[in-house]
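Archive entry: two folds, one per protein. Generate the first.
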Amino acid sequence: QVQLVESGGGLVQAGGSLRLSCAASGRTFSNLAMGWFRQAPGKEREFVAAINWSGGGTIYSDSVKGRFTISRDNAENTVALQMNSLKPEDTAVYYCAARGGSAVSSSILYDYWGQGTQVTVSS
């Protein structure tokens, strides 16, 4: 089993930046692909970004491409999401997720989930 804990959420003005972190435990972190998803109230969970276990392959949703960067530090068992040029529509609960395969965009293919961290972007 894998336990995931997100941190770094908060309130930021539009155009600002925020960095989310996710700490993993319970399984060898370097063998897991990691992803970030977000969910606004009353909306479906949305893919944000994912990274392969090697760190060499990343994918992003079109809505965040060029603004967000996903990275991982296998020595520290962490994955981060650097969010720049934030927009009010980025407001959501952000979830860290993990799976034993490659990076994918479908939430149903992820096996482990964190508790979420709130990101609020004010206009």
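Generate the second and append.
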Amino acid sequence: QVQLVESGGGLVQAGGSLRLSCAASGRIFSDTAMGWYRQAPGKQRELVAAITSGGRTNYADSVKGRFTISRDNAKTTLHLQMNSLKPEDTADYYCNVRQPWATMGGAGDYWGQGTQVTVSS
């Protein structure tokens, strides 16, 4: 029911910036939480940033002060502004939307196809 398409990834030099976007379509409830995850080669997927329906944001310690998550008023587009990028930020980045009634990994937990971010030293 929900489809997510990420864009904006690419190759940048350390210290550079990228802005990731996630376009959401389908039926999204007003209480739906949204977030960005990333997975580096050989590593586990980790939460990068999340935003609640009320606009509260949460960030991984490793990206605080550098990344900013935001959404539009209709909750149809999710963004991740990534500044002061470091080589350790290199990973595949995934958009996640979880309906208020859903559990992680179950029905109502949706993921995009991912967009690759590579930061060179």
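Annotation attached to the second fold: The chain has a mean pLDDT of 93. The longest strand covers residues 18-25.
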